[in-house]
Amino acid sequence: MNTDHTGPVHPSARAVSPLRPASVAHIEGGFWAERRRVNAQISLAEGPARLEQAGNLANFRAAAALRTGGANAPSASDTGFSGDFQFQDSDVYKWLEAACWQLADTPAEALAADVEAVVELIAAAQREDGYLHTYYQLGGGVPWTELGWGHELYCAGHLIQAAVAHHRATGSDRLLDVARRLADHIDSVFGPGKQVDTVCGHPEVETALVELHRTIDEKRYLDLARYFLERRGHGTLSSGADRGHDRDPGPEYWQDHTPIRAADEVTGHAVRQLYLLAGAADLAAETGDTELRTALERLWRDMVTTKTYLTGAVGSRHDWEAFGDAHELPADRAYAETCAAIASIHFSWRMALLTGEARYSDLVERTLFNGFLAGAGLDGRTWLYVNPLHRRARSHERPGDQTAHRTPWFRCACCPPNVMRLLAALPHYMATTDDSGLRLHQYATGLYGGDGLTVRVTTEYPWDGTVTVTVEHAPSTLPRTLSLRLPAWCADHTLTVNGTTVEGEAEAGWLTVTRAFTPGDTVRLDLAMPARLTAPPARVDAVRGCAAVERGPLVYCLEQTDQPDRLDPDGVAVVPDASLTVRSRPELLGGVNTVSVTGSLLPAEDPSADWPYPPYASAASGEPRESVELTAVPYYAWANREAGAMRVWLPLAGRG
Amino acid sequence: MNTDHTGPVHPSARAVSPLRPASVAHIEGGFWAERRRVNAQISLAEGPARLEQAGNLANFRAAAALRTGGANAPSASDTGFSGDFQFQDSDVYKWLEAACWQLADTPAEALAADVEAVVELIAAAQREDGYLHTYYQLGGGVPWTELGWGHELYCAGHLIQAAVAHHRATGSDRLLDVARRLADHIDSVFGPGKQVDTVCGHPEVETALVELHRTIDEKRYLDLARYFLERRGHGTLSSGADRGHDRDPGPEYWQDHTPIRAADEVTGHAVRQLYLLAGAADLAAETGDTELRTALERLWRDMVTTKTYLTGAVGSRHDWEAFGDAHELPADRAYAETCAAIASIHFSWRMALLTGEARYSDLVERTLFNGFLAGAGLDGRTWLYVNPLHRRARSHERPGDQTAHRTPWFRCACCPPNVMRLLAALPHYMATTDDSGLRLHQYATGLYGGDGLTVRVTTEYPWDGTVTVTVEHAPSTLPRTLSLRLPAWCADHTLTVNGTTVEGEAEAGWLTVTRAFTPGDTVRLDLAMPARLTAPPARVDAVRGCAAVERGPLVYCLEQTDQPDRLDPDGVAVVPDASLTVRSRPELLGGVNTVSVTGSLLPAEDPSADWPYPPYASAASGEPRESVELTAVPYYAWANREAGAMRVWLPLAGRG
């Protein structure tokens, strides 16, 4: 058993990954510490109540009662499954995984008790043969016959992930044994010539099986992950007669149209696509499969260069929660599911470990601070399922989860516990060790290290670009390399070692300092962090002729409530050569820096017009327009106050 | 009975409408004559076979057998309803209505025989109590209990419209009696204190009941239409437990959130909204209700100025086939259902009759030539359900009706017979008579008139702007006014009467010539028709920084197949000050004028880039780019050749 690591994604000793997550990884202060505090004290603490209210826990109790045939066992005709979806169990597993990562970092009695109670509930619901999925146990249908929409393997994957977390956090085998029995059952059912020779409509089990293999060194699980990864893409999935799904999404929806190795585009349901690629990256790490790695690099680049929002969000299309076409990135109708941002981080982090390249952690940073974090309300109790980059003052949304209003819980509650598990595990995305030393991928005050070199980081990031790294422990005489990621957004920086400016080796996004470190050595990185205007790619139609305000890793937006006289941000353009002013506002939105930007009013709409499309010649000429001072706030903090219009992309004044 | 009119929308003698559709209305040549020939000889002629194949006609046979209890009667457990939707009957009714308008214009033996056979089939299926809806008759559920999704009144409306057309075309009461019995049944069921006190999820019966009232002068039907129109907007509809609809669209979807009189925005499902407003316009015409008229004017303006595509298409959102927010008009993900364009024409035409204002016919023209006509393949056998203004070379579409590929028939086949009935009735949208004389709303070679003044129009419109109007019959000495619509797109025109240039009275879009006409008098209107560049409204984010090519009433587009080396139109910008060259291409797409426009290549994408959003300062500078000659074709003709990219809106070169 491998128990020296208390976070997710832990390549085995045989893995080809040059980088390993740092074994010492604690966030101790600053921006993310506060978000993690809210996550632990509010989101995670209130999780069991939410899961009780939504019926998820009742499903396990009912399944356990059915199994033991006790007095409270449900009847065959009314088995009492609660919730609208086949994957309700996964909400429980994701909360559990999150709670375990949190406990591994910061022990807490009440949370630990909640965890053990839920673990027992899950264990009690498992069938003797290892099967565990309360929807089908409670009469939802015949197990393993509705692979398209049944989500049995998806839920199994989340159970396995939770079990790995529980084991790494507590050392206990209690849930790990449940996971093993389920994995063995799956192994007995799935495969060429076995009962079922296809895959799950929703990937997740793949990465889970690799992690299970890593945890208990059982090669059958790696082989099973490989089977699911290679079997996909051959058109074996179908909508079938699965209940409630009379529309056929087509094979692309669940990435069953072409094998990963042959794919040249990320397509279909964004979360499905990215969970799948995360699993493939895990497999490539464990097997050294270079063809698979090349395919993953190609698909990652396709995603980043043609299908990713400025915020790092992905999956632009409401219809089927899908990646759209290349360059189809509408700001207003952005779907940009919170879970898809998380999935992107999962994929990118695995690519960072597999390749050692900084670009992957650049995207992780951008996604963390923007597309991901916007999904979590500042209060820890409300959530966004979709994360548009533009909301109009009078916006038409159909009732349900996909609104731009923060919601306490969702009918399809995939996102909240997914946010919880990423925030709980966040320290493990900050730093890696490798043969030469330590790399800092993200900047947050805390303690990071392993293999003899441990450093303390102090920073006000993302509000300030100064990062101070002090060596706490170092091998006595061995030269080691400390690598600091130079963020792609940063145009100017200085690096000092013990007060002396050095060049540092700059290579492909890493600044490196190599020396025989001794405790007390201080490396200081100053990242210039002026507010800046960013342009869209030339082929992104939806935001052509616009610019966005950014500062450091943060994307900014205009919220109506911050503008003079609650001016609707849809009525202004930004003056491109005006200066941008940064202001510290400790009282606002938990403490943010705002950016002031000079705008000009768009011409008023003509209420008497019969047709709004003017001849180009007359539209191109414009009168001088009134100037106005606009205030931008970090995008992640939007929609935490009164409802109103919001824009990330601002039309450029004087461009017609 | 009122039988002097052989087209749809015939205000009664009591109606306040200043304009009435001209009683003489025949398209005899030119653009629309060819499209109507294809409609009659191919689309309408093949309609019965399509309806047979899709099972729609079988449903009527099964319902008739069930009623008479013959040997072929379906069993209660397997009643054999064919098709996926509750509104399958309406496809039959719409084809029938179309066929009747066509027969009224041009008798044809085979089509007449088809019509009478279908009429008998329908009559045989009607229950003794007047009820008629094969889905519920064949075991689909309990009639009048699923108003949200049941579509019973919607189908009833289409039956009534077909019956009115059959009566006006043939003089027969056979189908009209069926319609009366159904209307009487509805009248006995619906109303305050009656069995059902709510409305249908899909409007249509309202305008049908007004037309029935107009046809047989029965005030109860007008009152029933009024009841449905006024009852709506009070939140009485619900999704309920209707089968297959577990998602609640919210009251706005079917315009049940606010009464028409109070609404200030067109919202929700576009076809539902516009069929409803067409019915309200009919009611306002018959009752002189000025409050209702004011509301309709307000809603029409909201639609035109904030929610209408350049093509006249409406209903931008795939999600729930809805109007989006104001200014939410994406070119790529435009839903723009063909039926919504037809519904917009229905609404606008009624407003033209009600107000006498030219703006409504301006929109009818634009929609006819672009957003509507694109839905009909040049071959008369293939259709588009959705009508985007941009299709990428590699476009991701889910399987089903909503693709940008022409399809022989749809699972939800609302659009094809809707196109057929508009093309069949088209002559009746061309001209009106009023107290002072004759107005020409649209320009097509043919004979138009009534009340003593009849003219022959000769024109090559829309390829050429010359319209020659020759008086065929005129009252001997009475001065009459001939009014010609001056299209809003036209910046320059000349008007001559018998060879002498006159000013004409120009008022609010009408050019008028008043005199005592005599046969042979010739009025000639020359509309300058240069190709032109058009700009988008400042607040339409999706196409900011672009321009579109137009000529006359036609919107143009770039199709990949016409460009040098099949250049992808997504890779070019248009040079705004370059000249546009019009070329006649009789061999192309049934004969069109193309427009050549100078473009420049967008910078190539950088395949090695890790992040595609550049700093504004570096993006704004651009190198000189290669120039290229592009060929635009009329938008209505797109997607009739090999699949490929298409763009209406072209980025402006040198705008970053």
Features:
homodimer, alpha+beta, seven-stranded antiparallel β-sheet, 34% helix, 23 strands, 656 residues, 15 helices
Topology:
2 copies of one chain form a homodimer.
Chain A: E1 20-21, E2 24-27, H1 31-53, H2 56-68, H3 88-105, H4 109-125, H5 134-140, H6 152-170, H7 174-189, H8 205-216, H9 219-231, H10 270-287, H11 290-306, H12 338-355, H13 358-372, E3 390-391, H14 415-425, E4 431-433, E5 437-440, E6 446-450, E7 453-459, E8 466-473, E9 480-485, E10 493-497, E11 500-502, E12 505-507, E13 510-515, E14 522-527, E15 531-534, E16 546-551, E17 554-559, E18 572-574, E19 581-585, E20 592-601, H15 616-620, E21 627-634, E22 646-647, E23 649-651
Parallel strand pairs in A: 5-9
Antiparallel strand pairs in A: 1-4, 2-6, 3-22, 4-5, 6-7, 7-8, 8-14, 9-13, 10-11, 10-14, 12-13, 15-16, 16-17, 16-23, 17-21, 17-22, 18-20, 19-20, 20-21
Helix pairs in contact in A: 1-3, 1-14, 2-3, 2-4, 2-5, 3-4, 3-6, 3-14, 6-7, 6-8, 8-9, 8-10, 9-10, 10-11, 10-12, 11-12, 12-13
Which segments of chain A are poorly predicted (pLDDT under 50) over 5 or more consecutive residues?
Answer: 241-245
Oligomer: homodimer
Task: Indicate the overall shape of chain A.
Answer: globular
Most extensive contact? A-B, 86 and 85 residues
> What proportion of the residues of chain A is helical, as a percent range?
25-40%
| Continuous helix count of chain A | 15
Please report which band the strand proportion of chain A falls in: under 5%, 5-15%, 15-25%, 25-35%, 35-45% or over 45%. 15-25%
> Averaged pLDDT of chain A, please?
94
Distance between the termini of chain A: 65 Å
Rg of chain A (C-alpha, Å): 25 Å
